[in-house]
Amino acid sequence: MTGGTVTRRCVAVLVLGAMVLASVGCGPKKPELFRVRGRIVDAETKQGLSGVKVLLRAGIPTGVGATTLKSFGLTGADGRYDVELSEGFGVLRTAAEIRLDAAKQGYGPVSVGVPVPLRPAPFIPLGDIVLTRMAAPFREGPPAPPRGLFRDDPPPRRR
Predict the structure, then answer these.
(1) pTM of the model
(2) Nearest to residue 92, comparing CAs of 125, 126, 120, 127?
(3) Average pLDDT, stretch 24-37?
């Protein structure tokens, strides 16, 4: 073997070794996700509610004010949810407040505080969140105008 062949083989081995190390995890580490898990139940039946809209939000103070990080989710058939913020625990440790909001048509909305994490964990477990049926049906959109007032009515006369 000549000196050039040995050098090429050594370079090839070094490049291959670097590729293996990079694929194993020696590259930059991703931040751990902040994940909240739990279940939302009906107040009367204690059964899990499906289709509940869930919002996880964290208020983070910054040098020019505050910013709110948000993540949305939906409960499954058994009322369970799993919502995550992509920011790592280091960012969320500075959070002024972390809240989980839950809303479903026909039920009163609920907002609960989530503890600010002291150290990374796979997820933050929350106990059952209870939603109570509303007496009147939930209406989306603006309220209906009072009777007798229509846009096409002429303006009142001045005397």
Answers:
(1) 0.63
(2) 120
(3) 63
